[in-house]
Design goal:
Layout: E1 2-4, E2 10-12, E3 23-24, E4 32-33, H1 42-52, H2 61-74, H3 85-95, E5 103-107, H4 112-120, E6 124-128, H5 140-143
Parallel strand pairs: 5-6
Antiparallel strand pairs: 1-2, 3-4
Length: 171
């Protein structure tokens, strides 16, 4: 919050520095802007311990169980897991058949890897602002685009169904 001084310049009101995990250095020395806050209770700590103790967190029985349950939830035969969100992003355009000269709708508030994954496939990212409803404005440019690639930080609460030009076209 700011207030206007008589000179017309803004001055920051006195407030305690922000001290939470997030982006450092943008609001003064020692301050941070939180990107997200996770909730870690004993149940979550125990679950992590159960996955890590066998020593195979990337390919153990929990991964296989997750893949089976996720495939059942999605109504598909197969699913796959990746070691990171970036790896998943970089494989998605190829899995969707996105090719050179395609245009892919991506959210305007996202991570750099989102647009980079589209560019690596030879396509062009089209940045769009998502809304929480079917009122997403569809321009002529967006109407030529292939399905969207909705990826956003945990603080973005957009319903990903509405980031695409045509209903049902979500990667």
């Amino acid at each position: 919050m700011t207030s206007v001084a008589r000179s017309g310049r803004h001055r920051a009101e006195s407030r305690p520095p922000m001290r939470s995990p997030g982006i450092r250095g943008f609001c003064g020395a020692g301050s941070t802007i939180p990107i997200a806050r996770s909730v870690k209770g004993q149940e979550e700590i125990d679950a992590v311990r159960e996955v890590l103790i066998p020593g195979m967190p990337a390919s153990g029985s929990f991964v296989e169980q997750f893949q089976r349950e996720f495939a059942r939830y999605c109504g598909t035969k197969h699913t796959g897991t990746m070691n990171s969100g970036t790896a998943a992003l970089f494989s998605t355009p190829y899995a969707l058949g996105i090719a050179r000269k395609d245009e892919v709708i991506v959210p305007d508030f996202t991570f750099g890897a989102t647009a980079s994954s589209v560019r690596m496939a030879g396509a062009a990212p089209i940045f769009a602002h998502a809304t929480n409803g079917p009122g997403f404005p569809v321009s002529d440019e967006c109407a030529r685009s292939v399905p969207g690639l909705p990826v956003h930080p945990p603080v973005a609460d957009q319903d990903c169904r509405y980031i695409c030009a045509r209903p049902g076209e979500v990667a």
